[in-house]
Specification:
With 100 residues, this protein is mainly beta. It has one domain. The protein is built from one helix and nine strands, in the order βββαββββββ. The strands form three sheets. The protein has a five-stranded mixed beta sheet with strand order 3-2-1-6-7. A two-stranded antiparallel sheet has the order 4-5. It has a two-stranded antiparallel ribbon with strand order 8-9. The radius of gyration is 14 Å and the shape is globular. The protein starts with a strand and ends with a strand.
Length: 100
């Protein structure tokens, strides 16, 4: 399963989301993907991102809880700004504790 765990912003315009930080919980790998590439992948159903979907026109990405602006932000130079949102991506079967 793949989850969006952060947004990537433009270095010129902090209000412009240019991509997303995704994590594959099966492999534990993180990747930053451009906004338009995520739109295309969701539209063609090449991937499913558990907490993102497209609007009815298939043009704009919407976060499942409408809290996109509260996710951690990554910039081009890989500086992260943490916000109030954490994404729970699983839990330990032995203890039942959740992890992010």
């Amino acid at each position: 399963m793949i989850y969006m765990v952060g947004t990537c912003i433009s270095s010129e315009n902090e209000n412009s989301i240019v991509g997303f930080r995704l994590v594959d919980v099966t492999t534990g790998k993180y990747v930053d993907i451009a906004y338009d590439d995520v739109v295309c992948a969701l539209y063609t159903r090449k991937i499913e991102i558990e907490n993102l979907y497209l609007d009815i026109k298939g043009e704009e990405i919407i976060e499942l809880g409408n809290k996109l602006s509260e996710y951690p932000i990554a910039t081009i130079d890989d500086v992260e700004q943490h916000n109030r949102v954490m994404t729970i991506i699983g839990k330990c079967e032995d203890t039942g504790k959740q992890f992010i």
